[in-house]
Amino acid sequence: MRKSFSALTAALLGAGSAVALSVALPGVASANCAGPKVIDQEIFGTTFNTSETRATGHNDITAENPEALRVWTEGATSTDKAAAYYTGFEVPLAAQTAQSNYAINYLGTPPPASAQQPGYQLVVDFDDNGTADGILIGEPVYGQNWWLNTTAAQFVKDGAPHTGGGGGSDWFGTLEEWSAKFESADIVSFGYSLGSGVKGDFLIDSIKFGCNVFDFQYAKKAQANRAPVAAFAVAPGTEATTTNDFAFDATGSSDPDGDAITRYFWDFGNGGTQDLKVPTTTYTYPADTQPGSYTVTLTVSDGTLSSTKTGTVTINPPVSSGVQDKPLPNTGADVMTLAALAGLGLVGSGAGIVISRRRKAASAHAA
To answer: Which of 43, 58, 144, 294 has the fewest CB atoms below 10 angstroms from its CB?
Structure first.
């Protein structure tokens, strides 16, 4: 009869793991498997119990290794342990004795059997009373023998298929042998453990339990579109030259999402505008533009969102020559024209225009 397992005993997995995980993966306790089940970083955090992982042990699914679960420890001390368990189900051990039901598959070349790699772990209720009694640990170096953890219940140690060491601990046997000794045993959790006290770094592609394959993959988080950032520079400076010409450069504009900026809309503050797809342009303020400051506004868009940037340019008054070419009343001429015709010289000063007759240069000759 199926029972509800709400906890893994503190003696087996530590006090921190005495809570059943709320998210169950379909098909774990069934022979009907629908192919690999993708486990991304979010699903891993809610379906695998990592409370047995210690301070310097890590279980990471990140963008750095997007197709694997990285299981690693920083050193070889008692705090170096990385472990994770999937729980919340019940499967008779007698139905899962084939060695082919269990595998930790590595990304790339698998480590040699002699390497201190993560061990496959089965948490077992050996007497079918609803409480986990021990952990069977499978490691390639021991072939098909699964050894029992040292904190298992005494009755499990007493009933072990083999004793005396040589198989990972003093209590070991194949899964068929364990099942024969404990006919009502149920698997209530499976997972892996690296350490403690073992330094290692492994990329696990997937883990197999029965006909279920759990494939570890990093899932890129969807991010809301962000607006581009407008920026521009003006040349030559912000004050007009005598021709009122300005060059505008918006190549400093950017988009935080890496999207292309598709529109550059310029408002030059005098009613003139330009709507462009390129970041650079020139603009000449008309000759009759009133002197003063004009606000230039750039709006950039990525096709969805937009932002603006403003700057100021200054149109200076026209430069005066200092000589007023004023018309003379009732003559149809002006001061400059008459002075030139009369051979007069005009000398400007702060007090106005002084007219003087030019003298012919005297030629030097002998007396």
So the answer is: 144
